[in-house]
Every structure is written in C-alpha cells, then in structure tokens.
Specification:
Layout (H helix, E strand, L loop, with lengths): L1 E6 L2 E6 L4 E2 L5 E2 L4 E9 L23 E8 L4 E7 L5 E5 L9 E7 L2 E9 L9 E8 L6 E4 L23 E2 L3 H4 L9 H6 L2
Antiparallel strand pairs: 1-2, 2-5, 3-4, 5-10, 6-7, 6-11, 7-8, 9-10, 11-12, 11-13
The structure holds 2-acetamido-2-deoxy-beta-D-glucopyranose.
C-alpha cells in the first residue's frame, strides 16, 4: 500500500513494509518509518559539502538542501530533516539530538535531483499536527529560500531574513493523514528520554 501527499516539489510518501524473507526464510525486520521522496531541480550551487554521502553533515543548511519540519505545536517538539542532492543529510530533534543516522540516497541527473530518505518513527515526537518544508539553493546574493508555507506578506517585518523556525506559520499535517486514522504511532525511545 502506498499513499502519498504531494507538497510542492516535495513528495512525502508513506510505505508499509511487508515482512520479507531471506533465502533461508528468516524474516528480515526493517524499521518502519515515513519515506520522504524528493524530486527537485538541481542547481549544483553551492557545490557539494566536504563530507561523505550517506553521512550526517553538520551545517548542511548552508548548502543546497531540502528541509522538512514535523511539529507538535502543543509541546513545540519537532523533527527537522535536511537532505542534500549530494547525499549528505542532517537530522535534528528539538531536544538537541542531532547527527542521527538516516537511510538516504540521492541521485542527480542533469538538472534534477531525486532523493529518498526513510525517517524512522522513533525520530518523530508524538502528536505531530503541523509541518513545513523548504528548498534552499544558490550562493551569496543568489541564495534562494523556497517555502511550502511562507510567512504571509502582511506579517513581514522590515529587514526580516528567512527563519525556518517560525512555527506559527506551519500548517496542519498529521501522520494519520498518511497512515490512516486508526494508525497508532510507535513509542519513541528518543523522545521518551527527552521528556524525562
Ligand atoms: C487545523 O487544525 C485545527 C485543529 O484540528 C483546526 O481547528 C483548524 O481548523 C485546522 N486548520 C485548517 C486550515 O484546516
């Protein structure tokens, strides 16, 4: 079963993993999560960060990235996911945890990049009810910040720069809208520790 919500050029897709078997019939347990698929224009600007693909890269937000934020607006806990066309990624939890591992692949062809990240459920705080996403590229004065849910014009202050943590401009989103209303989010060891 595959459900998807299209959010601009960011495709968030939920996938149910069926238990697979190895050649000797042992079940392979894959951690389930939300499959985040990116299909975006590739600018190759700025150039690739100096870190290996497949690894977390601190400060990835200064490069070409697509970011998604998943927020519980009551507790203000959120998961921030950053993925780069060159294969690096960065996971940030509001409680300060970062550099968590991520199954993420990226591929660039001509002017398009495609990426696929499996976000484990344990990375999500309970009660996600809002989200926002950004695509960032370019250098210097040409640095461009695209937002799925931008700050409305009338709310802009003079001299205001982009700030991705303006949680009040996030819009409604639940994991249940993808997984089904009856779906119950697994407990997260990461967030349970954080709230103690
Ligand atoms: C967002 O969700 C809240 C709470 O469920 C609801 O009251 C509100 O109408 C929703 N807003 C939109 C724009 O759907």
């Amino acid at each position: 079963m595959l459900n998807s919500v299209c959010t601009g050029c960011i495709l968030l897709t939920a996938m149910e993993f069926h238990i697979r078997h190895t050649w000797d019939s042992l079940p392979v347990h894959r951690e389930e999560g939300l499959l985040m698929q990116v299909n975006a224009p590739f600018f190759n600007d700025p150039p690739a960060p100096a870190g290996p693909p497949g690894e977390p890269f601190p400060g990835l937000w200064d490069y070409e990235v697509v970011e998604s934020f998943f927020l519980n607006s009551n507790t203000e806990q959120y998961l921030e996911v950053e993925v780069c066309p060159h294969g690096q990624h960065l996971i940030l939890l509001l409680n300060g945890k970062h550099n968590l591992p991520l199954s993420f692949n990226a591929d660039t062809k001509n002017k398009i990049w495609k990426g696929e990240a499996l976000l484990p459920w344990r990375y999500f705080p309970q009660g996600i009810n809002k989200m926002n996403s950004y695509a960032i590229h370019g250098s210097g004065a040409g640095r461009t910040y695209e937002s799925l849910y931008p700050v409305p014009k009338e709310d802009l202050q003079e001299g205001q720069g982009p700030d991705f943590h303006r949680l009040e401009y996030f819009q409604n989103f639940t994991l249940q809208s993808i997984m089904g209303e009856d779906w119950v989010q697994p407990e997260s060891d990461l967030w349970n520790l954080a709230s103690k």
